Each structure stands twice: as C-alpha cells, then as structure tokens.
C-alpha cells in the first residue's frame, strides 16, 4: 500500500487529470495508482493525503468517523468574539447548519510560504488569521462559514489532517508517510463492528450467543 502527503499549491486541482488543461496533482506527484482522500479547493492550499488503500480512504472521508481537519484562514478584517462564537456553535449554509467547530483567533500570523498570487490588499482594512478545526466536508465549507459571519476568506491553508501535519513540506512537494503515521491514521479511522440487537426469537435461535453482522 502507498501512503503519501503532498502540499497542494494554490490553483491546483485535487485530481490527476483535467480536460481544461489546468494544473493537477499529476504535475507534482508522479506516483501511479493513488487517489486523494477528500478534496481541497482549487484556490486553497495545503495538506492532501493520497493512497491506494481504498478501505482507509473511505473511512477517512466518511463524516461518521469525525476525522478532524485543521485550517488556517486569512480573513478580511478582525473577527469579533461574537463572530468567533457563532462559528464555534455552527452557522447556516444553504439551509443546513454546520456542526460545532473549534475556532480561535491566531495572535500571530502563522509561518507560511508566499502564495503565487498575492491576496488583495486594502490599506484601510486589516487582515487576520483564524484557526478552524472541523470534521465535516461540505462544499467550500470554511469559506462559506467565515462569509456567513461577515469576514470573507482571503487565503485558506490546511496544515493538518488528524495527526498528520505538513511540517516543513514545501508547496508542490510530497513525501511518503512513516509506518508510525500510517498506524495512527488506521487507528483514527477504526471503529469495531457492533453486534446487531437481537429479538427474542433470534436469541432462541442462536441460544443466546452474540452474532456479528
């Protein structure tokens, strides 16, 4: 099995082909037979996990396993405590409320690389960085969350998925996971099968023994 993380650059698709000729992961990860676990938007940057382990891929992508993803979000303005609280409790996006999130305003700008295309700059409006941790995967969720509380996202970076972090991995580069990291991921996505509740009839049929399905 192959387990790889890549630091996806800005304006790169989280896939290996594109009929429109846009940049894809194939331009940065020349490894055949692997697929991304989840997605990261074209205009977002950061950690993407790639593997040919279909079982792990499915489990890590499934919201029921609540694998936490960390995002560093540069927003227009400085969010108030009220706005941060709303993000923590959940906001409505197209009629659906987001699950509770872990949110904090970063006191200092995180140490990140320069983006190929700088964000828009407005002299009279400062920007700030917010860390948001979620286990959901709604379309463009983080951007829509910050917009819903009045602070549009200018730049979005994912530095971590569960226990995996980018570390010093430069944009456009990748590395294979250490065995310990693979075991951590498998442990994170492991959920033992639960025995189905038996009726009185089934108890008699199986003489009280538990049966797993």
From TrEMBL:
GO BP, one annotated term: rRNA processing
Superkingdom as given in the UniProt entry: Bacteria
Enzyme Commission numbers on file: 5.4.99.-
Residue ranges of every copy of the Pseudouridine synthase RsuA/RluA-like domain listed in the record: 2-148
Keywords for the protein's UniProt record, in alphabetical order: Isomerase
Region feature (Disordered): 180-213
GO molecular function, a single term: RNA binding
Top-tier EC class: isomerase
Signal sequence segment: none
Pfam families assigned to the protein according to its UniProt record, in alphabetical order: PseudoU_synth_2
Family: Belongs to the pseudouridine synthase RsuA family.
Protein name (record): Pseudouridine synthase
Source organism per UniProt: Pontibacter ummariensis
Lineage of source species: Bacteria, Pseudomonadati, Bacteroidota, Cytophagia, Cytophagales
């Amino acid at each position: 099995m192959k387990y790889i993380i890549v630091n996806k650059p800005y304006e790169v698709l989280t896939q290996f082909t594109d009929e429109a000729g846009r940049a894809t992961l194939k331009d940065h990860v020349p490894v055949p037979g692997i697929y991304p676990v989840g997605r990261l938007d074209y205009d977002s940057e950061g950690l993407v996990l790639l593997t040919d382990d279909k079982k792990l891929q499915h489990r890590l992508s499934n919201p029921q396993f609540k694998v936490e993803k960390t995002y560093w979000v540069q927003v227009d303005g400085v969010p108030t405590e009220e706005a941060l609280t709303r993000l923590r409790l959940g906001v409505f996006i197209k009629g659906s409320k987001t699950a509770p999130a872990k949110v904090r305003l970063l006191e200092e700008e995180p140490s990140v690389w320069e983006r190929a295309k700088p964000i828009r700059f407005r002299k009279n409006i400062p920007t700030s960085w917010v860390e948001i941790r979620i286990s959901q995967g709604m379309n463009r969720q983080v951007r829509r969350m910050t917009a819903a509380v009045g602070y549009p996202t200018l730049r979005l970076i994912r530095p971590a998925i569960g226990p995996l972090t980018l570390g010093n991995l430069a944009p456009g580069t990748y590395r294979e996971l250490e065995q310990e990291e693979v075991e951590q991921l498998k442990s994170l996505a492991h959920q033992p099968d639960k025995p189905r509740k038996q009726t009185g009839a089934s108890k008699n049929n199986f003489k009280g023994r538990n049966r797993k399905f």
